[in-house]
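subagent[fold] <- orchestrator: predict structure for attached chain, return tokens only, no commentary.
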Amino acid sequence: MADETITLYEAIGGEQTVRNLTKRFYQLMDTLPEAAHCRAIHPQDLAGSESKFGDYLVGYLGGPPVYMEKHGHPMLRRRHFVAPIGAVERDEWLMCFRRAMDETIDNPKLRDIIWAPVEKLAFHMQNQEEKPS
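subagent[fold] -> orchestrator:
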């Protein structure tokens, strides 16, 4: 019997896990005082952001291309350019994502595999220079 390769999407539990992850991510961003800067650059109502981010993560992790089917190419940097994303916002976003991942994805090895490209993506999304101290 040949080894079957599965996607990260399948390995973490598919759609339900991705939706749990994004729901928890936005709950944390919305409630943690230490995420206030990141929260401030998001819409008042986070439902649309949560839905789109969940759709994006489904495809990003190897599931069906839900985001592309609904919204076209993600063009993430261009879509986020309207929001001032500096080091503080980026780091708060990463903190929320890391905590949400720790709470919703059981396998630490899978979390580590997901973390590296997500962290790289967050740095790529930064569009404001760091302010000198």
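orchestrator: received. Logging for downstream: The mean pLDDT is 91. Residues 87 and 132 are 11 Å apart (CA to CA).
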